[in-house]
Amino acid sequence: xxxxxxxxxxxxxITAELYEAWARTTDLPIVNAxxxxxxxxxxxxxxxxxxxxxxxxxxxxxxFAQLDALYTDIGSSVMQRVATEFxxxxxxxxxxxxxxx
Length: 101
Fold this sequence. Notes:
Elements: E1 2-10, H1 16-32, E2 37-44, E3 58-64, H2 67-74, H3 77-89, E4 90-99
């Protein structure tokens, strides 16, 4: 199992309510329906353990078995639209590829 971790803040002028409504109605259902995706979650950062403000507002976890299959799925016109919409919400998202130990 592999996971892509996405860390991001919202762009100036984008409210949490607007982004979260889009994530619930568009991003989560469409990405979770991709054949290559085992699980997709969007998490809202609430703080740092021990106190303080987190450096990122949101964390996405995208779990999948094979990267090639994921690339095929995200190449679809629907996913290209979703990716474009995501870029309008997220300010310089950081995509980290990982694999389980």
